[in-house]
Design a protein that fits this description.
By secondary structure, this protein is mostly helical. It contains 15 helices and no strands. It is globular and about 55 Å long.
Length: about 280
Amino acid sequence: MKKTTRIIILALLALGLADAQVEFNFESVTEKRNNITKSLKTNQIALAWEAAQDPAVKGDKFTLMLREIAGAILERQWIYPGETEWPLIDWSKVNSVSNLINDQKKIIETSHVVAQNDEELAKIGAVVEATIIMGSNASVWYEDWLLSLAKGSNTNLKRLVFLTTKSFGEDMEEETGSTRIVDWNKWEAAFNQADKLGKALLLVCMTDLAGRNENYTKLTAMHLSVFEGTNDDLKAIALYAGDRSLGPAVISKWQDIADNHSNVKLKALAQELLNRHSVESP
């Protein structure tokens, strides 16, 4: 398999699109995606992003490059079927922690809310590929970009990154030669300023990042703040991002939800996580 074909398939898998039961022609999508990649080699915005050294400038150029790739897709309204606004959690579709947001990916695919034809799917695949790769590297400039995205009003891009980001910071050590120090105060400040979707994005990325250097102190406090709040959607995301390394205080919150919460589906998610934790424990 050619590298470019493998990359676009990985990008589509992140969206849940590779097994789509829709009329996309994946050969056409791959060809169009390859053309996008080739065009970026001479695109002035992409070249300016590549050359930028200042983290703020590089972040700004990255946003411009994603908009250049996506065109109008990120600017139009994405309408969730049967709802007036796109929910963070569709409780009617919740069935397990591991599949908590899979329904969101399938809605994007099957309703054509985002990609309406092969060309648009290729564009979305290119955007997803770029953010997955940059998220895996987790350079300082991308970290700042992500925090800004979480606090900002670009809801479509924020949602797309939330639904497809995985293993944040996985290649950070490979890129820098060592696990760099993370300024958790910046993450906490961004979390406090973010909307619900932004908080969900940060919870997922922070949990991955904390595992890179085994530093869970600040993250634990933020998970506790979610569990002590009243938002079931964010509690579900905190369970989705849950890790036993967060410590006994957080695990106690899982148990309290499993035992006492009025939301039956949230109770089931907490119990599932507790069962997994029990199996993983020595």
